[in-house]
Amino acid sequence: MRMRSGIIAVLTCFIYMFSSTLAWAEAETKVLLAAEDSWPPFADRTGQGLSHQLITAAFSIEHIQVESLVVPYSRALMMARKGQVQGVFNVTRERSTEPDFLFGEEPLFVANASFYYNRNRPLNAQNKWQLPKGSVVGIIKGYEYGDEFAKLSRQLQLVPVASQEQLLNLLLLNRIDAAIMFDKVAEGFIKRMGVEEEILPAFSNHQSRIFLAFSLQNASSPKLAKALDEGLRQMKQSGQYQQIISSSRL
């Protein structure tokens, strides 16, 4: 009887250890990320785009499965800061974001942003530093606009909005003097709205190194950042990275 009890105890212990190992392995091979919903062609409301392709492919090389929650960008940042997700898509690495997130070494890509204006209301400036004091400029709530923007914004009147369409509509209605938009994103929305003749780029605001930013609240973030870096490097060496970039026509 004692021998049978001992065998049962050993088997129970083995099953517990095996189940725990499986649970640990499953946790280590999945990552939950917040993806913004309004930044095509990089990330859209359907959970598609260049960022999704690059992140999924890079993690796949390291045998990590990606699960994405598609939410507005400001909410995605908040979720990562609170540790509700392990990372957040498409964050510019700059002085304002480095204290809040863990970044790897490899950016997903580089994106350019410019000031856009209504052809019927030209800007009286040749570059961003020449914008008249008090110029009304539309931006997306929560977006990063480069390390110089903190200084530049002191001379501007900023109008934060929730979507790219709102920025363009404000320009069309002459409610703002300019809007800062990432060029590839602006290109798609301007074409979709049929306002190529009305809304034009003026001059550059900044160039962003775009990252998947990891939550400081998650103990696995350093390992995940390292895995993503390694996956991206292997993709670049094999040519897979350039194939994905080329297929997205950027």
Automatic annotation (TrEMBL):
SMART domains: PBPb
Occurrences of domain Solute-binding protein family 3/N-terminal (ranges): 30-248
Gene3D superfamilies on file: Periplasmic binding protein-like II
Signal peptide region: 1-25
Keywords of this entry: Signal
Short name of one Pfam family: SBP_bac_3
Family: Belongs to the bacterial solute-binding protein 3 family.
PANTHER family named among the record's database cross-references: ABC TRANSPORTER SUBSTRATE-BINDING PROTEIN, MEMBRANE-BOUND LYTIC MUREIN TRANSGLYCOSYLASE F
Protein name: Amino acid ABC transporter substrate-binding protein
Species the sequence originates in: Shewanella algae
